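Key idea: predict the complex, not the pieces.
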Amino acid sequence: MERKTLHISTSPHLVKGVSTVDIMRNVVYALLPVAAFSIYAFGLNALLVIATAVIACVLTEHVLCRWSTKDSTIGDWSAVITGLLFGLTLPPSFPLWMVFIGGVVSIALGKFVFGGLGYNVFNPALVGRAFLQAAFPVAITTWSEPFASDRFGSVASSVLALPFMEPVVDAVSGATPLSAWKFDKVVAETQDLMLGLVSGSAGETSTLVILIGGLYLIIRKMMNWRIPVAILTTVYLLSAIMHFSHPESYPSPQFMLFSGGLMLGAVFMATDMVGSPITSLGVVIYGIMIGLLVVVIRLLGGLPEGVMYAILIGNALAPQIDKVIQPRVYGTKKISS
Amino acid sequence: MSLITFSKRTFRHGVHPPENKHGTAGSAIRQFPFAPEIILPIAQHLGAPSKIVVREKQEVLRGQLLAKASGYVSVPLHSPVSGVITKINNVPTLSGKMVPGIHIQPYPASGQEAIEGEPIDVETATQEEILAGIQQAGIVGLGGAAFPTHVKLKVPEDKNCQVLMLNGIECEPFLTTDHRVMLEQEADIMTGIRYLLKATGAPKAIIGIEANKKDAAIHLSKHIPEDLPVTVQVVPVKYPQGSEKMLITSVLGREVPSGGLPIDVGVVVVNVATAAEIGRLLPHGRGIQERVITITGPGVLDKGNYLIPIGTPLRFALEQVGIEGTIKEVYMGGPMMGMAVSNLDISITKGTSGVVVFTERDIRANQKVYPCINCGACVDACPLFLNPSRMGILAKSKAYDEMAEQQHLMDCFECGSCSYVCPSHIPLVQQFRLAKGIVRKRKAKQKVA
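Result:
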């Protein structure tokens, strides 16, 4: 036995194999099929938008870290997730210069000012998107049809629009199922919604692919299944009640569940651990609140879509939910009612 | 009458670290040789250290008193070997502190017969006599805490003990001492239970065992004497079920009140190895001289469970079992709650339940600490339903009083489940230990002022 210095650490001397970086990397894996389907459906436009979003987010994170003389944190993959999610929430033919600005805002305003990973109050991707919604309301509600015949051969002129110039709206543009319902009372087929044969944001159209990604994370225990389940159940039940009481004014619960950004938001954005409560009961309440807000904004508000605002409000409420919902500590008496 | 029950009931939360017990679970307890020099630090238990009653150059017999108890919360120390005292000086201990210690050189030619003292007859002895006998035998909790057993067994006047709980859970990964003791020392355990039932006045005893030691549970249930009110209960495997509170919740469904003791819910908990030692020593009036420990870990060549003389230097023990590669980390106790050794020149003491050795190639590089991402894994792991995430954030801003007053910091028994699951590798339990120490000091200061 050689005499060498012993390594000293305090117990526990074992750690579970899963690290924060593993979780982040797996979220990226789960998002890749969603991005792939988006590119398959919307072609080069979506590819450019998603790539620009990821590059903008990662670059911003790197530059800000170096600027504040810290080590770059891009190795933790969280900026990649923000970039992917942010890109997937945009219309597939969104001007790239706007994408870039939005990506910078996502990281700088949504994450960095709060102190970086773990400290942000709101989902950074949604912060970026909310900024764009306010700054470029027309561009962000200009949709293109999926599966256009020349989608891999040409790029929409709006995508390559010069910065600060009014983008030229392409000839072929389509309404999302939600706006079609809201403004024209046209209801899309559930099957088309499931498969993603409709127009919408780059990554929100195919329910099926999103669910597969979510299922992967749930199986790997890297996502709290209670959040999407609470949101989707709330939306389904509430819209079912409204639909069956006034079938002519409100769409079916299936339509509500599978249209717009609900699936992408419920599975990938509301589940962002940083912005959601920490206890099991807390996340259920958080999910129900988001579900309620989605239904209220969509069916009673002026906007066709409400998922983004619902999740941002949910994020804002999460710390309050954590304050109210404290687990009963072992050995302390239950508070009698 | 069925003496064994398999229950699905367990406490809530907790974790499942890899068990790693296969290396030693099947190996019978083997006698360990005497080291050329036995070194006995006098502080081998919680409470006041014992007082040395021997001098240098004195010849001692195996079982002879070396140091007497210095108060109620203290136990005596007996010689584990016949030999000559070569030195009495300060020796290093696991905690890093230097304490007075006795060096004994064994006589190789001696038969090493242990001397007997005043036997204690379980039939005729009074409760007080049994408690005194347990103290005189130098017995402390062999599960690792090393708290004097007679103090724990003393039921306060205004309370009564309904259940004597024998702790055969052994939930720490790697350790198999209790497992082997249950398989090999069934008679000692049963005798020990007789003493314990009388000492506590409990009408019945339950032996709690985790499902990964079914063989031990079946073996013990077969050896329960007709007249002994003992049952065996097998519970699902989960860490930290070996903690008194968790064991009581798993087996009886009762919750020990915050800040309270098991006796507050009518239970006294004793480790099975401690019970076996009581059953082994008291009929002969002997003092404790040796104990069973598991020596294991990826670097150990001859892994096993050994009956090892107390005071055996750790370095000698490791030379005996053989180490492959360079020793990098050594823990006394299991890897979840055990302490890392900073110095191989310390001794095996009454509180050593195991020695786990990791060599160079097993050590993972220090994991990078990431910010808390609020994943909730720690909240789902804490068996006391504390909020380790919140406490970690408070600890970071040194809000120790808030941790104690609003977050039940002092209830934390430092099982380390939160640190184990944290994907960001935040040293949560380590921060809580520190915080608890600071809060205790502040409280003590306030009392003085």
